[in-house]
Design brief:
heterodimer; A: mainly alpha; 9 helices; elongated; B: alpha/beta; Rossmann fold; seven-stranded parallel sheet; six-stranded parallel sheet; 13% strand
Chain lengths: 233, 421
Amino acid sequence: MKSALDIFIQPLFQIYASFFAWLPPSVEPGMAVILFGIALNLALTPFYNHIERGLGDRRLKRERVREDVARMKRHFRGRERYFYIRAVHRQHRYHPISELAGSADLFLQVFVFITVYHFLVDLPLLNGASFGPISDLSQPDHLLLGINLLPIAMTGINAISVLAYIDEPRKRLQAISLGLIFLVLLYRSPSGMVLYWTTNNLFSLVRTVIQRRQLFRLPASLREFIGRLSLQQ
Amino acid sequence: MGIRARHAPALFLLVACLHAPGALAYIDPGTGSALFYVVTGIVVSAYFALRGLYYRTIEFAFRVRTQAQHCTVAIHCEDPRYESTFMPIIRHLVRKGVEPTLFTMYERDNTYEPLPAGVAHRAISPGMLGYAYLNNIVADVLVTTTPQLDVMTFRRSPRVRHYAIVQHALGESRYVRPFAYDNYDSVFCCGDILKQNLRRMEEIRGLPAKELFEVGLPHYEELFQRAKSAPPPPADRPTVLVAPSWGPLSMFESFGVDFISEIARQYRVIVRPHPQMKVSQPDLYRRIVALDGVSVSTHRTPIEAMSEAHILLSDISGIAHEFAFIFERPVVVLDQKQAVGGLEGELLGGDSEVKARCREFIVPVAPAEMPRIVQHIGRALRHHSAARVTEVRDQLIYNFGNASEVAAQQIAVLLGRMRST
């Protein structure tokens, strides 16, 4: 199983390693990690956009299904409710499992991220390397009286991104909770790796802000038209 | 889905995160949300698959296939009260040389009208067992009054080529349960309002257009014939028929029975308690039967009581429409706001158009006006115009007095089409 996975992982490791080898020796390891994060995110941008488009369509459909299902749940119970929810799914040509089938891009993205994790965790470049106030990128940063600041900064950026990206309070809470779980899990990770994640989250935030601004730059009539169009779909 | 099932995706995700390497932390809010929905999808699918398996197993266990299920035109009558809809259609079908098979979910003894020669009858079990039988029949056309095809236990048989639903009341697809007409191939509409609302529902749900035929209400013919042959109401003193619904929202439950005595001081009163009241509200039923100076009608159908009355006081629409349109007499109806939560009317929005169009002769009276009900009855009697009833009737109902023949003709056309393709 492991060797089969290696067939996919090793080429990506080679690409990542080539990027670090391509950077001039004058670039210090911390900056190299940041540049690596930016480069990888830029390379992944078409995938992000593709996922975003897919998510947009699916989100719209899911939202309509959710509204109808909520209506059925509000008024009916038991067997009747079950059959009506099934009819709602059929009406929207929706099956809960379609969330899985329509998420191949998501799995690809997660796969790339896993490879990055495994790549950075063993990266000799980080051993003993300092970056600004961080003394060793292969260790947790301990920047404030033994407290690791980078994971907290990463979570903070993630939270800002959530606030910029998600409007619905329930989903915001869900995403922020997820971020807090990751904070606990990654609190003791090497600072070089957390630096990459922080860059990654920052990139995501900037991307979201730019996308939103682009939308709001459109004339009000066009925005309204896009809104109507998405409702009709 | 219960609370545990709702929380399962989150728990699953949490467990997955705890076991996965830290790499999942790379997930940004959008992707994290997508991942959440993937996990939700798996859990909800599993839930639906398991629950569906239960219903499919039951359906499979009850599945019946016999030669008796083969026919050309199947007529499905769920309850004896719909016989008045089907019998005139059956008679016309037989006249046209079409010999349908009548599937009833009850036994027909000799108290029922005999079926014309050539019409086969199969009594099938009520409920799930009967539907398991019906879901496997072989027919060119199946006609029923039962809504919600392919929603709950009444499923499409793969060997029935056309499903049609016929109306047994002046409906407008407003106070019916979800998806009532969605999966029929055709609807025999009672009037324009239903037709328009069905088109609106198709639009709302993005459904393909069904065939909507302008048929009318076949059962009105039976009532109309019987009304014509009934003696006119006594002329000495106006008679009020009080025929409300039963249950917690009924007029008797809300206002007691004293208002009947009030009415009886000025008018002759016939009370027709709902048959279900005898079973479900026996104490109330006994109080009504014991009322002084009031006659109580317990006939099998309300037609005798209706023919004797000058005016009807009720709280349900079915009998109100029948009384107004068949006897062309006024109705005072208690205007209790009917909740449409979950019903098709919730999607249609607005209020009942039938009610608005009939308010001159089916006069709505607010519950707060109940202490002045005698005055309202008097006013409705004084201002009534039978000509206005017939005018509105012709606007609201297709083919009044001729609907069963139109329905039979339509079935014959459908049958011919099914056979030729």
